[in-house]
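#structure-requests
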Amino acid sequence: MSLNWLLNTKKPVSVIVDFVRNASKKTGGSTRNTNCKVRPKHRGWKVQDGHIVPAGKILATQRTTRFHPGLNVGFGRNGTLFAMEAGKVVVTCEKFEPNWDHTWVQRNYAGRTNQNIFKKYYNVIPEPQHNRFKLIDEV
C-alpha cells in the first residue's frame, strides 16, 4: 500500500504506526562482583586424637596429602581419610621412607635425600572384643 493511494481514496483511512523502543542500556546491575559469597570447603581434621569414632566416620578432608592413612583407616579418591572400623583415634608422627627412584618423589622431596622425613598418620585402634567365649570340648 503506497501513501498516494491513501491520499486519493475518498474514505477516511486511519493509519496506525507502532513504534518499538528498544533499551539502549542493559539493566542497572553492578559492574563488579561485590556480592559474590563463596562458601569455604572447611577442609582439615574433623576428629582429634583420642576420640572414639564409629566405622565410616570421616577423620580428615584434604586437597593434598597432609595426613596419611594408618591402621584401620581408608583413603578416599579425593584424599578423605575415614575410619574402617569403630575404635579410638590415634594420630602419630612416623618416619617416612619414600621410594627415591620414583620421579614424583624426586620432584617433591628434592634436596632432602639425607634427611629424616616425618609424616602424620591417622590410626584407629579397634575396641577390644568381649572375653565371654564359651569353649566346647570336642567329643
